[in-house]
Design a protein that fits this description.
- A hairpin with a 2-residue loop joins strand 2 (77-80) and strand 3 (83-85).
- The longest helix is centred in the middle third of the chain and has 26 residues, at 153-178.
- Helix 3 (90-111) runs antiparallel to helix 17 and helix 5 packs antiparallel against helix 7 (153-178).
- The protein starts with 8 loop residues before the first helix and ends in a 6-residue tail after the last strand.
- It is an alpha+beta fold.
- The strands form 4 sheets. Strands 6, 7, 8, 10 and 12 form a 5-stranded antiparallel sheet that branches.
- It has 17 helices and 14 strands.
- The structure holds iron/sulfur cluster (2 copies).
- The site of one iron/sulfur cluster (SF4) has 14 residues, from helix 15.
Length: 488
């Protein structure tokens, strides 16, 4: 029987294991080399695009906004340089999203998690914040020392200053996002004057908080625990995809340079200097094999190549290599240049699908009409029987002018013999088979059309066609149905 006075010492000596490993802060070391330079380049390009794009102007004439990239929610338009997407053309945006998806498939099957390593926003902002750490607190060893040091005035001030810089970057990031949804200079003035819409302040606050927390503090934990993309990518990669690999057949048995020099036959090329671990932004040891925490940024390649150069051994102990090539090299085969892994049926197929969708979208953009018409017949009453036996239907027309200038549009009845038409402006006295209506720039105009047919004309289908009265002579049609007594 259990005696509550007896303390179970075996349980005290062997506490239950913790479910989660405690996070070890990553203090990655500065490194230089071609992959680090490429990472710099990607950071500069992506951040410049993100922060700068809304400030680029694009002249679309006096009737349309002059911001090069703008999601105009109020008027339901998406502007991207010379392209203007209307709501009914959302398939272009869907096409762009599909292209982005296939582009990611292409990139993953060719170069593994290169997206994660170089251009994912989480990677870019984490990299930026890690540079801030280095700038304020020094390189790896200085940061480790500072972390371990007790809290004092100096440490508090240093931390406060650094977090202030984090906050400024986070605020700048949130602020840049809203600039895509309104005229950037106007919104900036309104924002600081307190006149912007509440949603703008809420969006900036949310994005500031998420950037500050995810980029400033959570960092590699987002990649390892929160982001689904590494899991999806693992499923998309195969033995022919390039990935960062430690060549254990060349590096093992690892041992210090001193030991290796004493017994060269016993030791491999890895001198266990831990430089590859010290520079890793996610703090992992690539020598333990491929793992979810590796974003394939290749900074460990730069670090190891420098070590190999110092000790006079060939570069590439850690390298971009496919699993297939790794097996071949392990078996004594000759190394194959990495670029050869890029060209294979799978990547070529992805590229062709990606390019095909792009070309189809370009063709559709070039061929699309900037004029449109839709017509809806009044349901109640469906028709009016006049005293002379003629029948009248009323329609609501929507005329679309996608040009950035006002245009005259001529609406013509196609079919429906003997019919004539008038509108609220023209009056029945001037009824004819065509109406000319002016439509403002970059807008859809609603107009009423009344159509009358001679007595005993049966119900039937017909078309409204619209032609722009200008040098473009653009046309569009829409089907309609004329109803009459006896129509089911
Ligand atoms: S940097 Fe190269 S030599 Fe140094 S521990 Fe890593 S793999 Fe070994
Ligand atoms: S192991 Fe190498 S490639 Fe992977 S995240 Fe670390 S530094 Fe980047």
């Amino acid at each position: 029987m259990h005696n509550p006075d007896v303390i179970d010492l075996t349980r005290m000596a062997d506490p239950a294991p913790e479910l989660f490993e405690k996070r070890k802060t990553v203090h990655n070391k500065r490194v230089s080399g071609p992959f680090r330079r490429f990472k710099w380049l990607m950071m500069i390009v992506t951040l410049t695009i993100y922060y700068g794009l809304p400030w680029i102007r694009w002249d679309r004439g006096p009737y349309a906004p002059d911001q090069a990239v703008l999601v105009d929610l109020a008027h339901r338009r998406f502007y991207m340089f010379g392209i203007e997407i209307w709501p009914q053309e959302f398939y272009f945006v869907a096409g762009l999203l599909i292209m982005a998806g296939i582009g990611l498939f292409l990139m993953t099957s060719a170069v593994g998690r290169a997206w994660c390593g170089y251009s994912c926003p989480q990677t870019v902002w984490t990299d930026l914040y890690q540079h801030i750490d280095r700038l304020i607190d020094g390189d790896r060893n200085a940061r480790i020392r500072l972390d371990a040091a007790p809290w004092g005035l100096k440490k508090i001030l240093r931390r406060a200053f650094k977090w202030m810089i984090y906050l400024v970057i986070a605020f700048w990031t949130g602020g840049a996002w809203i600039m895509y949804f309104a005229d950037a200079p106007t919104l900036t003035r309104q924002f600081w004057a307190g006149d912007a819409a509440p949603v703008a302040y809420v969006t900036v606050a949310v994005l500031t908080a998420t950037t500050f927390i995810l980029g400033g503090f959570m960092r590699e934990q987002v990649c390892i625990y929160m982001c689904p993309w590494p899991r999806i990518q693992s499923a998309m990669m195969d033995e022919k995809s390039l990935t960062v690999t430690y060549k254990d057949w060349r590096g093992e048995k690892r041992g210090s340079l001193k030991k290796a020099e004493k017994n060269p036959d016993e030791f491999g090329d890895c001198i266990d200097c831990m430089q590859c671990v010290a520079v890793c932004p996610t703090g992992i040891d690539i020598r333990e094999g491929p793992q979810i925490g590796c974003i394939t940024c290749a900074l460990c390649i730069d670090a190891c190549d420098s070590v190999m150069a110092e000790i006079g051994r060939p570069r590439g102990l850690i390298d971009y290599i496919t699993l297939e090539d790794a097996e071949r090299e392990k078996a004594g085969g000759k190394p194959r240049p990495a670029w050869k892994a890029l060209l294979r049926p799978r990547t070529i197929t992805y590229f062709m699908v990606w390019g095909g969708i792009g070309l189809a979208m370009l063709f559709a953009l070039g061929a699309r009409s900037h004029t449109g018409i839709s017509a809806e017949r009044d349901r109640n009453p469906p028709y009016m029987l006049m005293s002379d036996g003629s029948v009248r239907n009323a329609f609501t027309l929507k005329l679309r002018n996608m040009e950035s200038r006002p245009r005259q549009m001529r609406v013509v009845l196609e079919g429906l013999p003997g019919a004539s038409m008038w509108s609220d402006e023209i009056g029945r006295g001037a009824a004819s088979r065509a109406l000319t209506i002016s439509v403002p720039a970059d807008a859809t105009r609603t107009a009423r059309a009344y159509i009358i047919v001679p007595p005993n004309t049966p119900a039937q289908d017909f078309e409204f066609s619209v032609v722009s009265v200008d040098e473009q002579v653009e046309m569009a049609q829409t089907k309609a149905h004329f109803t009459a007594p006896g129509d089911d």
